[in-house]
Amino acid sequence: MPIHCLTIQLTTPQTSQHHTIISQERENRKKRQAQCLYPEPSRAPCAPDQPSHPPPHTSLQSKDSSKNEQSRSPPQQSPRIPRPPPRTLPPPHSNLPATPSINTTTTTQTTEESHIESLISTHPITQSLRQNPLFTESRPHRTIPLPLRQNHLVAGTLSGPTRLTVPPYVWATSPSSSSTTTQEGQGHTQSTTHTIFHIGNNLGGHPGYVHGGLLTVMFDEAFARCVSASLTSGLGMTANLNVDFRKPGIPGRLFLLKAETVKVEGRKAWVRGDLTMLKREGADAGAGEEDVVVAEGRALFVEPKFADSIVPLYRN
Fold first, then answer.
1. How much is the pTM?
2. HEC profile for 51-83?
3. Where in this chain does the record put each Thioesterase domain (predicted)?
């Protein structure tokens, strides 16, 4: 007699639900395989067993690829801004307005300087000094080298039309005219100078009068020239300067500054002098005009120990 085995499978609700899910997944897999093998015309074939959502890194890769594509693409050129047309300069001989001020100013300066030169040369004091054999005439400011003259206060800054119109005229006694011996036994020449200069209208202080500071500068300039012949190196620096003003100076006039070295001791030299405003001569002379002493001065000059290292200012 045959023996039949009966297999009894006990299922629980959870087990049956699990089998149901598995069977559904199998059916879905078969359908997807069928769709991939026989795709519809309107749908693209799909890869089997691919998840419906891409992994997280897929979006990053797509962004990177888009950036690479943008970087590979040629840069967009910005619109070109039209340049303005170049400026054309007028030809050298075009009809431009002339500037006559340059030539006119030069002519005026030359005329004024020539007039002052004539006034000084024809003045009776000038003619008397030129006839005196004890005096030697010079124009020290003209002997200063041009690079030094441009930076010099008197010969450069204060010189020119409407200021110190022309370089001053200087007459000095010759070195052999008189001499003395100091306590150290060294011979020094006692010198005397006469300086004539013209002051223009642009060096005033109070309206109608010459600035007192300018007169002090002229004393210092003339005194230094006077003591140079009494010092071994020919160079003295101002140690003390006193000026006593007597009358105000008037611009547009000639002035005479007399200086005399009165004492020399070693490297020290004392000098004194007076400044006179000369009366006008010829047609410009006023009735009853006389020479007027404007100021008197005295000073002490010292020969510096480093005189050999100083660049000489004058050539004579």
1. 0.63
2. CCCCCHHHHHHHHHHHHHHHHHCCCCCCCCCCC
3. 208-274
